[in-house]
Amino acid sequence: MSLKQLVKVTKPAWRMQQVCLHFPAVSRGSRRFQFLNPGTREIHHSTTAADIKGSTPDEESRSVRISSSLTLRRAVNNRDLNTCRNNPLVLLFPWLEAPQKAVDKYLELYNDKGWDVLLVRSSAKHFLWPSNAKQVVQELLEYVSSKEVLQERTDFIVHSMSIGAFIYTVTFIELQEHAKKYQEFTRKLQGQIFDSIVIGGSQQMGKGLADSASKGLLGRLSIRALFAVYLLATKKWTADYYDYTVQRFIEKPVPIPTLMFYSLDDPNCSSYAILNVIGNWRACYPQMRVKYKSWRKSVHAAHLLMHREEYVSELDNFLASIDMTNGSTQSKL
After folding, report:
1. Residue 331 — pLDDT band, cuts 50, 70, 90?
2. Which of 55, 78, 153, 309 is the least crowded, having the fewest Cβ atoms under 10 Å away?
């Protein structure tokens, strides 16, 4: 990412007098959400090869684009949406600019169980200017809290990775601040998985952004420097909000069963900070029943690739512990 690109995706930040951080109105009857049939949730937006570049023809046929940020990936045996009522819907928040082939590995983990996955995509602009993230969250909550989806789905689980966990944090802040509005959806949240979350301060966030945007050392260092300057210039709208979301993540989480994946050598993720978070949750929210799996050596947001057998085993055991593997709605708290 060059300086020109960074300025482009954060252009609203330089027009602070015009900044507005409220949610835009999003309606199911609007151009963004035009469902052809409320019973099937089919929509006018069709999925194209460009939308899911790298997917196979079969995977493309099972994908339904809800909006520019949301794509529903159906399970192989779940093409008829009438069969999905007893299966949980997984909300997957991948890392920034995650390649579709890499994301498919996570989709397959759940599709192979017969579970559908709602992919919540984010880009640099959603992280660099938080009001953009709030627009994605509004789209997501508009969809999952709709009458049709709540009737179709008995359970929801969340799987978030790297800075994708930031989008999920913004989501659960909205859930908590509008508890009555989203109480039915929140009631059906059964478990959450965090993988390689970027935590430990703005320095870690800058490193996470740089690693997502550039593969070269010089590029990463340049982006980190630009990000530091950017935070100084936009502190009220960015750095202060990042600090607020981290505080909420630590002090007021969604108190449901939780699984953490991380590695001790991850430069984007402070293992010390993660252990502090886990300790705080266990002390203040014992009903969360927090579990974690760490590796001495691994790769940020690639633990599934590096340690597939252990990763899948830990995930399956966690899901089984909350009675999700058979679509049960009863959590073991």
Report:
1. very low
2. 309
